[in-house]
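Subject: Sanity check before I submit

Could someone independently write out the structure tokens for this chain? I want to compare against mine line by line before I put it in a report. The sequence has 144 residues.
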Amino acid sequence: MALTVLLSLLSIEAASGPVTMLSALVWTVAVALLGPVIARTVTGLLPRHLAVANVRAGSKRLASVITPLSLMVALTCTILFVQTTMGHAAKEQATAGTRAEHILGPHVSAGTAAAVRQIPGVEAATEVLHTSVRVAWTNTAHRR
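---
Independent answer below. Compare away.
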């Protein structure tokens, strides 16, 4: 639970990437260790029929099915969706950072930007540094 709370508080990709993988691993180990307890609890909520009584009696066998399935789903979802989620967040941040109504050009010197700031009616003029955004383990160049 602590890793999940920590992960929800992190906003820097370099910090959240490793914590994401670690929290997925810790959750899957927890499910693996608590498999029989989870199986008994879930079957305890079902109506009392012969099939449910059989499953309740064999909760260790049920846990042997639940555990690998939960491990597979958790790790697969983490591996598949971390890249796309981080890529989407990086794209949104790059788009949100570009809000100018007018753009002077791809290469404007600091002196030109200072001169533009002095023009009456100009609210703000900012130099933009083109760089690359690190998304998980790949570098993707975003130009705005």
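---
OP: Matches mine. For the report I'm noting this point. Helices lie at 2-9, 13-33, 35-44, 50-57, 59-96, 110-117.
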